[in-house]
Amino acid sequence: MNHTTKLSVNINKIATLRNSRGGNNPNVVKAAIDAQRFGADGVTVHPRPDERHIRYSDVREIKPIITTEFNIEGNCSEQKFIDLVLETKPHQVTLVPDALNQITSDHGWNTIEHQDYLKQIVSVFKNAGIRVSLFVDPVVEMVAAAATTGTDRIELYTEGYATAFLQNREKAVAPYVAAAEKARELGLGLNAGHDLDLNNLQYFKQHIPWLDEVSIGHALIADALYLGYENTIQLYKRQLQ
Ligand SMILES: CC(=O)[C@@H](O)[C@H](O)COP(=O)(O)O
Ligand SMILES: NCC(=O)COP(=O)(O)O
């Protein structure tokens, strides 16, 4: 039987559009409800300290309407982020080592260097009953050191894959397969995200069929402008079959 890979729709870009004008159009709560109605298996948000897209208040509003899976991503060096996650209790928290004012996430954790810190912060969320995922680059040593932090899952940072895919897809996916195999060997659940799209997603899933979840925002929301939100979610789901 095929392993199910969940599609979690990242709605940050809906919030970015809303914030560009003030007001509440488009409505991010409606975008979360509709993502689920249109077949997504979950909703992802990534609040950043400057709240330039998803706001902390959005996260509080969205949590009660989630009927699928809620994933909050962010930088746990901010106490405000830790408090938000512990208050809203999503199904999953994905810890990302963003610097302040970063345009978007651009690297995974150095799980060797930050081993002690990660052990401590992973346990804070796990003790609250929240599944933890650590954002990591596709490097076998980083995956191995992620496992000893006690995290439930890792999320492979896929920008490198998406960029290299355009030149040589076999070469692009190879480090991800190696990292994913290490994760499987160590009993870690496996997520992936960043710059996944309708061109590169199916190939990724075909080479790593045991993938548990992908979170996709930027390309999916851009595609929805041309293809419609419901249709786009269905098209992404199809790539994961
Ligand atoms: C953690 C990660 O991979 C990022 O892709 C991020 O969650 C995307 O959010 P933005 O689209 O707001 O940059
Ligand atoms: N974790 C990755 C994510 O949520 C979305 O990344 P992107 O599709 O916006 O690049």
Automatic annotation (TrEMBL):
Question: To which species is this protein native?
Answer: Deminuibacter soli
**What Pfam families does the record point to?**
PdxJ (PF03740)
Q: What's its catalytic activity?
A: 3-amino-2-oxopropyl phosphate + 1-deoxy-D-xylulose 5-phosphate = pyridoxine 5'-phosphate + phosphate + 2 H2O + H(+)
Q: Which gene encodes it?
A: pdxJ
Keyword hit for Cytoplasm: yes
Q: Which domain of life is it from?
A: Bacteria
Q: Which family does it belong to?
A: Belongs to the PNP synthase family.
The record's note on quaternary structure and interaction partners says: Homooctamer; tetramer of dimers.
E.C. designation(s): 2.6.99.2
Q: Which CDD domains match?
A: PNPsynthase (cd00003)
Binding positions for 3-amino-2-oxopropyl phosphate per the UniProt entry:
N10, R21, D195, G217, H218
Record's Gene Ontology CC terms?
cytosol
Annotated protein name in UniProt: Pyridoxine 5'-phosphate synthase
Q: What class of enzyme is it?
A: transferase
Molecular functions (GO terms): pyridoxine 5'-phosphate synthase activity
Gene Ontology biological process terms, A to Z: pyridoxine biosynthetic process
Record NCBIfam families:
pdxJ (TIGR00559), PRK05265.1-3 (NF003625), PRK05265.1-4 (NF003626)
